[in-house]
Amino acid sequence: DAKTTQPTSMDCAEGRAANLPCNHSTISGNEYVYWYRQIHSQGPQYIIHGLKNNETNEMASLIITEDRKSSTLILPHATLRDTAVYYCIVRVLDSSASKIIFGSGTRLSIRP
Amino acid sequence: KAGVTQTPRYLIKTRGQQVTLSCSPISGHRSVSWYQQTPGQGLQFLFEYFSETQRNKGNFPGRFSGRQFSNSRSEMNVSTLELGDSALYLCASSLALDGTGELFFGEGSRLTVL
Asked: Average pLDDT, stretch B20-38?
């Protein structure tokens, strides 16, 4: 699985959009981009995933560049409850689907 | 529906002992994977089971083992515990290997080795 690079930490004002970048320059054509987040002392929580097209769900939006070498997770209206470590992961969906390689993630702090 | 359940949530062991952790996946999920999380190494993949068969294994010594039962419940065992085994052990379940790939994690079992 390709590796990802994320900033160590970021902060965002409550109510504003939080934009979390991720670089995955070695991504393969069949690898998806996934985002998970981990709130302190809890298990990671799935947020969103995509292959080529931008995706949106009730939690966030995922913007993938045309060359697929980077992506941005957007939390449209950040709240204090969005304070967490956010992991960007790339992986294929095959028999090794569950062998996720987590990087260090981005620690997002939401300030009041 | 009920989420992934891990037991026990907290436990303390001493060096040399062994420990067994349990994971009950979401009903209908057949894939169960295990991860170790430590402050220094982050989240690391241990192994993954599907239909009672180990499909993938991470780079951990043989002291770490696991199994999956016919009802998809899974256990992992760590023998001859070392201080460095102190960690949060997370279990995740998913519907199938070729599904959306979404993993559902439990709250974890926090192991302290003294």
From this structure: 94
How far is the alpha carbon of B15 from chain A, nearest alpha carbon, in Å?
24
- Chain B residues touching A98 at Cβ < 8 A: 31, 33, 45, 48, 55-56, 92, 94, 97, 103
B30 Cα distance to chain centroid = 14
Mean pLDDT by 10 residues, chain A (112 residues): 87 97 91 92 91 94 96 97 95 67 91 94
Decide if B75 contacts B23 (C-beta within 8 A). yes
Chain B within 8 Å of A50 (Cβ-Cβ)?
no
The residues in A 11-30 lying below 8 A from B, measured between CB atoms, are: none
Virtual CA dihedral for A6, A11, A17, A23, nearest 10 degrees? Answer: -10
What DSSP state is assigned to residue B84?
G
Beta bridge partners of A100: none
Cα B89 vs. chain centroid, distance in angstroms?
Answer: 6
Contacts of A87 in chain B (CB under 8 A): 43
Token pair listed for B81:
């515990």
